[in-house]
């Protein structure tokens, strides 16, 4: 079976993991955590960067820093992972779901303002497949209505909007380093905080509500409890794994991009025949080859292609069930038919295997099978 995703582990990562273990200090904010933070500052110009235990926790931390509370409304796409909405609900606020742009699967920026009410506090844009949302438009709307912007860039590490790293444009940005992402640490994430005062607050909340981070830096001679907080620090062993991945970032990106481009070129003829639609990349976006998906003519063909690929040892998968149609979405008052584009295109999307160590033989085999099966089905 050709898996959907597979981590790329080399002697580089193993060496750093062993080094972390040998320090006899593997809790959070160790040497490798600092190295990862330094890497993003040096290579991406990102300041105010904090590693976390997951992107889920980054989103929750951002929602806490944003001051979301009971009665607030937050605009968010329904086509996203549950963590985006959970972060809102855990603060007592209400997610207001917005339909997608069928070309990018990002929230349709032309449908944002019609959902804004006096209760609206924030916008959570999600950069689907590492392809940027139209951030100029989102920031313009946010400024006009005095809204906070929290970028869910879980899939967007080392992807860009008009040359700016995703996650650095809004007030807060959240990354994922889950094992299914481009650069991995098993479980882990990061939060980027634009405002310096909010960044200091984030450090405190992340460290159980204490100013321990300032103590470690030598800014204070003892640390104590300042705010309500929790523990959002990943082990330095995991940070060591991530640092190895970051040192190999160019290699990993090159391999992923080769696979993405090979798929894209191979399926051009099928798109011209109307048998599928390929991913659309707007001019303003520089994607990171996080995912290669195709949109089939209908759900039946999507499911048949997925099953036949599986019969040939290829694990292709669909993606999110729209949140507004889930049991929790129904509890929130939504129903089938509320977001027609999201519902329609979620049924037709299929993701293909994409991981750095995929062989040329595997890649050729997948392309050939997609062509053969679709030419039989359509």
> What's the end-to-end separation, in Å?
25 Å
- Going by CATH, the architecture of the largest domain would be 3-Layer(aba) Sandwich
Task: Supply the helix-strand structural class.
Answer: alpha/beta
Strand arrangement in the largest pleated sheet:
1-9-8-5-4-2-3
Describe the structure.
The protein is of the alpha/beta class and 378 residues long. The chain has two domains: 11-247, Aspartate Aminotransferase, domain 2, CATH 3.40.640; 249-377, Aspartate Aminotransferase, domain 1. The protein has 14 helices and twelve strands. The protein has helices spanning 11-22, 31-44, 55-65, 82-89, 135-145, 196-206, 212-216, 236-247, 249-266, 268-272, 299-311, 327-331, 340-346, 360-377; strands spanning 49-52, 73-77, 94-98, 120-123, 148-152, 160-161, 164-165, 172-176, 189-193, 285-286, 292-295, 349-352. Strands 1-9-8-5-4-2-3 form a seven-stranded mixed beta sheet, with helices on both faces. Strand 4, helix 5 (135-145) and strand 5 form a beta-alpha-beta unit. Helix 2 (31-44) packs parallel to helix 8 (236-247) and helix 11 crosses helix 14 (360-377). The longest helix has 18 residues, at 249-266. The relative contact order is 0.16. The mean pLDDT is 97.
